[in-house]
Automatic annotation (TrEMBL):
InterPro entries assigned to the protein according to its UniProt record, in alphabetical order: Cyt_P450, Cyt_P450_B, Cyt_P450_CS, Cyt_P450_sf
Family the UniProt entry places it in: Belongs to the cytochrome P450 family.
UniProt keyword annotations, A-Z: Heme, Iron, Metal-binding, Monooxygenase, Oxidoreductase
Protein name: Cytochrome P450
One Pfam short name: p450
Cofactor: heme
Length: 412
């Protein structure tokens, strides 16, 4: 159990997000938080956080909050520091990222990419995902052991999203490298070295994408990137900067969380001791297993929002315009008011949706794709390697936001 101190009356919680006992198993701390104060001021972070399922779900949809604040106030008004010059290229990519925008800019971009991600479109990828899963397993099935993240979990989603966009699959190692270096920014207080490295990765990634976009303009193809280049909304096309940002976001978001979720799911299932043949007996059983893995071992535990005005919440929390709040998706998924015995992995439970893909305006556009990948890849993996087991206790990454494994060594 991590060192956690809770002042129930003042609703103040102190917990070190870098404490291995916390990030390895945040569910134990979440249980304490749910029992004592699911809306709390996190001392180390100096802001309010919310853990309750209903409230997290409602705040994700609440239009008084946004992922962006500079569309309603200036830095001066809010006392925000100036942008850091050494993050220029990183910020340039974020500036047009769907994830960081609010309407109307968000609506325009989201409408343009949305069509490619609706379930009907995504369903067509089924044979591709199945075939790729088998091909990857073929490459190590006779070895008797594998490090699953490198040899399977990382390759599958990046290959699928690169193919969808029309980016050469040979670029996958570079895409993974740029993406890993950029997402290190999404931890609490990244170091100067992390910032410099993320900026360099952003510059190289953007350069690469500008080259690909120029090529697609010369030679259009039947892919998502060409669609984004040629689509118009209200007579307007996406600018080059918007195209670069959106493509980078889709490539990064398109694999980072899915990689961790494949790893988390395999570890959870193996440690549960439940027979895989039952968990994946039918499509319905598989879907329930996948959703329970998403609930119990979610890959993304926290997202932030800005208060877009002064707000008084029913919980008696007063927020000033520009204040940030933290929404604990991983904690909402184990709220005992919503899920019975929430800290147990029970794939037969059917108690409603988890919030691992968020909710509202920014609800994960890739959810149908991620779900299809998980619903196909996991049963194939367990059917092909029925004797696989953990070689050792996998190390969890030291990054509270991204709950994933350093590596996942399996033997059979
Ligand atoms: C298990 C896998 C995944 C999980 C758990 C996940 C989770 C999330 C969550 C929680 C958000 C909302 C963030 C917020 O409200 O601030 C989000 C947004 C987003 N995700 Fe995913 N995601 C996954 C896979 C994917 C995939 C495969 C793609 C790509 C194709 C993708 C693309 C996006 C994009 C573009 C957004 C921004 C949407 C917007 O702001 O309108 N995600 N994701």
């Amino acid at each position: 159990m991590p060192a956690i101190s809770i002042d129930r009356t003042l609703r103040r919680v102190s917990i070190d997000a870098r404490d291995p006992a916390f990030y390895r198993d945040p569910l134990a701390a979440y249980a304490e938080i749910h029992a004592q104060c699911p809306a709390f001021f996190w001392e180390e972070r100096q802001q309010w956080y919310f853990a309750g399922y209903d409230l997290v779900n409602a705040l994700l949809r609440d239009r008084r909050f946004g992922r962006q604040i500079l569309h309603v106030a200036t830095r001066d008004e809010l006392g925000l520091p100036l942008p850091k010059p050494h993050l220029k290229d990183f910020d340039a990519l974020e500036a047009h990222s769907l994830l960081e925008l609010e309407p109307p800019a968000h609506t325009r971009l989201r409408t343009l990419v949305n069509r490619a991600f609706v379930s009907r479109q995504i369903e067509q990828l089924r044979p591709d995902i199945e075939q790729l899963s088998h091909a990857l397993i073929d490459s190590f099935a006779d070895d008797g052991e594998v490090e699953l993240l490198k040899s399977f979990a990382e390759t599958l989603p990046v290959t699928i999203i690169a193919r969808m966009l029309g980016i050469p699959v040979e670029a996958a190692p570079d895409l993974l490298d740029w993406s890993h270096r950029m997402v290190r920014m999404y931890v609490f207080n990244p170091s100067y070295e992390t910032e410099l490295d993320a900026n360099q990765a952003s510059a190289d990634f953007a350069d690469y994408l500008r080259g690909i976009i120029a090529e697609k303009c010369r030679t259009p193809a039947d892919d998502l990137l060409t669609h984004m280049i040629t689509s118009e909304k209200d007579g307007e096309r996406l600018s080059e900067a918007e195209l670069v940002s959106t493509t980078a976001l889709l490539l990064n978001a398109g694999h980072e969380a899915t990689v961790h979720q494949i790893g988390n799911a395999v570890k959870t299932i193996l440690q549960s001791g439940l027979p895989a043949k039952d968990l994946f007996a039918t499509e319905t059983a598989t879907a329930l297993t996948v959703e329970e893995c998403l609930r119990f071992a979610a890959p993304l535990h926290i997202f932030q929002r800005y208060a877009l005005s002064d707000i008084e919440l029913d919980e008696g929390v007063t927020l000033r315009k520009g204040d940030k709040i933290g929404l604990l998706l991983g904690a909402a998924n184990v709220d005992p008011k919503k899920f019975t015995g929430p800290n147990a992995f029970r794939p037969t439970r059917d108690e409603g949706a988890n919030v691992s893909f968020g909710a509202g305006l920014h609800f994960c556009i890739g959810a149908p794709l991620a779900r299809l990948e998980l619903n196909l890849a996991l049963p194939i993996l367990f059917q092909r390697l029925p004797n696989m087991r953990l070689k050792n206790e996998p190390e969890v990454k030291d990054a509270f936001h991204f709950h994933g494994l350093e590596r996942l060594d399996l033997v059979w």
